[in-house]
């Protein structure tokens, strides 16, 4: 082979190598563009589903609150009707709440939950409410002692609790899906980070919004305390309380909220609830959980607490509430409270069993307060 032939051969090899490299680069570029298009399309798909989940969670949170409100309002109706005070307006309000929970309501800003089990329970709730309303009519005619209003109301409250739980489960499923989807969004963003900086920024902002929204699933925005979702998560623990670590559970229920709403308006009623929540929040700590269990009901859970610790905590709350009431004589706070100690049981109870006993004790306290308030004017007349 002479020099010319060798030079031509080398030139051909170099040209062929460059051609191969250019072809590979083009293929890689096309692959990258295709990957970017796929990742972008997937990211857009994720964003759409995130927004849908965000909207769904926001609507579901109101459904949970109103499901709890149906129970609380109906409790007040039964108490007042038993006391001989007709509550036609509240009955209409509960009826509108139930319809809104079943079909959605623009007036109440409620969405319809696409869950068969929840809808079936709400249909049962609506039907039973009609029966309960009929029994209330009998209470007005013959007195509650001659009716089944107490048993029927307990059955109704149980259906309300089931409906609320199903709504919370639905909300939790959406929150879990949102959390999972957020992880997929972040993975997609990592793939686009070097070539799609703008989409990265948007995705980070969306992820931050998602995290904030997820935290709100457990936050009662009206009071700043943990909401019913969080309370139910604690109360729904299936395993019994540890015998080595006793637990105390307190149930609080505001008095006179209906009176405040009627006399001063719903805004003052909301302020009344927030004021009490603020007093409760002062005792919250790592060993004392305080949350709003819906409506005007609150719970406190004290870990590693005996009776003296509970009574000390309740005394601090009472002092704080009294100080607030003295400073705000136009709207003093009145509440009922009951508590239960796991150490009082022969066998360690579940949190739900503790709640049930504390709730019963709270109603005993509420009846005591009502009796005292009713006796007050009589003493003044004498």
Question: Could you give the topology of this structure?
Answer:
Blueprint (H helix, E strand, L loop, with lengths): L2 H80 L5 H16 L12 H27 L6 H44 L4 H20 L11 H8 L11 E8 L2 H8 L1 H16 L6 E5 L4 E7 L3 H21 L7 E7 L9 H31 L1
Antiparallel strand pairs: 1-3, 1-4, 2-3
Helix pairs in contact: 1-2, 1-4, 1-5, 2-3, 3-4, 4-5, 7-8, 8-9
Which key terms come to mind for this protein?
382 residues; Four Helix Bundle (Hemerythrin (Met), subunit A); 2 domains; 4-stranded antiparallel β-sheet; 10 helices; 7% strand; globular; disordered N terminus
What does this structure look like?
By secondary structure, the protein is of the alpha+beta class. It folds into two domains: 175 residues, Four Helix Bundle (Hemerythrin (Met), subunit A) (Up-down Bundle), CATH 1.20.120; 154 residues, Alpha-Beta Plaits (2-Layer Sandwich), CATH 3.30.70. Helices cover 71% and strands 7% of the residues. The protein is built from ten helices and four strands; from the N terminus they run H-H-H-H-H-H-E-H-H-E-E-H-E-H. The protein has a four-stranded antiparallel sheet, sandwiched between helices. Helix 2 runs antiparallel to helix 3 and helix 3 runs antiparallel to helix 4. The protein is globular. It starts with a helix and ends with a helix. The relative contact order is 0.09. The N terminus is likely disordered.
